[in-house]
Amino acid sequence: MAKNHFLDEEPAVDRVMKVVVALARETYVLKDRLGIVERKLDEKGVVTRSDLDEFKPTPEEEKEILAARDAFVESILSPIVTDRIDVE
User: Fold this and answer.
1) Nearest-5° angle of CA 75, CA 76, CA 82?
2) Burial class (CB in 10 A: 0-12, 13-18, 19+), 2
3) d(CA 65, CA 51)
4) What is the DSSP letter of 38?
5) Cβ 40 vs Cβ 47: under 8 Å
6) What contacts 64, CB < 8 A, 6 or more positions away?
7) Residue 58 within a domain
8) Exposure of 32 by Cβ count < 10 A (0-12 exposed, 13-18 middle, 19+ buried)?
9) DSSP string computed for 40-69
C-alpha cells in the first residue's frame, strides 16, 4: 500500500511538503528553459520561442542537463532525506 504522505502523519506537514515540491518543480523548469536560452544566445545571439520549443540537446548537453537536474533535486531533497535517515 502506497504512503499518502511525505514526512509525517501530520496533514499540515504533508501539505507544506507538497507546496515545496511544486515550487521546486516550477523552479527547475525555469532553470532548464533559461539554460536553453543561454545556449541559443551563445550560438546565434538571438532566441525565438521556436528555438526553445524545438531544442534537442546533443548527447554531451544531455549529460550536463541531467547532471544539473540531479544536483538540483539533491539540493532540494537532501535535508529531508537526511533528517528521515537520522530519525529512523
Assistant:
1) 80
2) exposed
3) 17
4) H
5) yes
6) none
7) yes
8) middle
9) HHHHHS---HHHHHT----HHHHHHHHHHH
pLDDT, tens digit, for every residue of 39-63? Answer: 999 999 999 999 999 999 999 999 9
In a domain, 34, yes or no: yes
Give the pTM: 0.69
Q: Residue 20 domain-assigned?
A: yes
Asked whether residue 7 is assigned to any structural domain, the reply reads no
Q: At 60, which amino acid appears? A: E
What is the rounded CA–CA span in Å between residue 45 and residue 60? Answer: 21
Domain that holds residue 79: 14-87
Q: What's the total number of domains in the chain?
A: 1
